[in-house]
Sequence to fold (139 residues):
Amino acid sequence: MKHLAIWAGLALILNLLWEIAQLPLYGLWNDPDPWRIAAYLMHCVFGDVLIATGFYLSTALIFRDMRWPMHRPWRGGFVMIISSLIFTAVSEWYNVYRLGSWSYASAMPLVFGIGLTPLLQWLVAPVLMIVIFQRWIKG
Fold:
């Protein structure tokens, strides 16, 4: 459980920073209610933590190893990144175009109608998490 807690903590920190940085690329950024923006931000960050820990556990099940970032960092990372990217693409499309839960600002670069920054988030954050995780455990 220690490894899962470290992973979740890393997910919280890195995704909070990422969500704050990409917030101006979403339509909500112009909302006059700062509490609504903060609630939206926290919702997204905790969702990201759930995604990261869920896919960490899924990857651990696939490799039968809770310490996969130490033993199979890039194979496990590949599984996690692909899973996270697919989930994010589907979630973004569904929430933007079907539910209307959020919208993109005109500044958001799009890839096949999906925001580029949420896709990049699940390429960059897991790699950083693996590297930091390894150093934390070894250190």
User: Anything to note?
Assistant: The chain is about 75% helix and 5% strand. The longest strand covers residues 110-111. The two ends are 18 Å apart (CA to CA).
